[in-house]
Design brief:
The protein is α/β, with parallel strands linked by helices and about 210 residues long. Helices cover about 40% and strands about 15% of the residues. The chain has helices at about 5-15, 25-35, 40-55, 90-95, 125-135, 150-160, 185-195, and strands spanning about 55-60, 65, 80-85, 105-110, 140-145, 170, 200. Strand 1 and strand 2 (about 65) form a beta hairpin.
Length: about 210
Amino acid sequence: MIQIPSKRVENVVEALTRLPGIGKKSALRLALYILKCDDTEAEFLSESILRMKKETQFCTICHNISDQNICSLCNNNSRDSSVVCVVEDVRDFMAIENTGQFNGRYHILGGIISPMDGVSPNDLTIDSLINRVEKEEIKEIILALPTTVEGDTTSYFIYRKLQHTSVKITAIARGVAIGDDLEYTDEITLGRSILHRMPYDGSSKRSN
């Protein structure tokens, strides 16, 4: 166990260990770096975190993180508004954007259906997605969700909710391995999965 001779430093270490992927050693290294840096840098860090928490919004259309009510991507007229890629969270949006292979728009669900974790369809932005399809001129919905049981359950639920519409429903190709998270998939594989997407028929397997 790491012995820290300062209670104030220990408190910062404890706070940092609450962040995902940060162990006690990494937290201590970060805390000591902050301790040694000048006041301007430390104040910039703390103010940036507070401003992010207080001022970051969620786009009222796609639910992506934004500095405004409507994000810059939804405001970008050069994007194809008729194609919407549905992803679990912001990290998946970033992963797909980094491929440079998609020029449509997005819809962030804010999670996937997982009864074991207490996440129901009502906890996600699925109703907002259905509303977009009914009111906007959307021709295709791409389901780019994790290749897991929960991801497939969510895809099927959305598929059933959209059956009364004429929108085309596709899913990313299985170039993404079963059980993989999109954010950890290399850009080439993910880009090809978007380009070679296939019709979604409501089953756990993708149509040929």
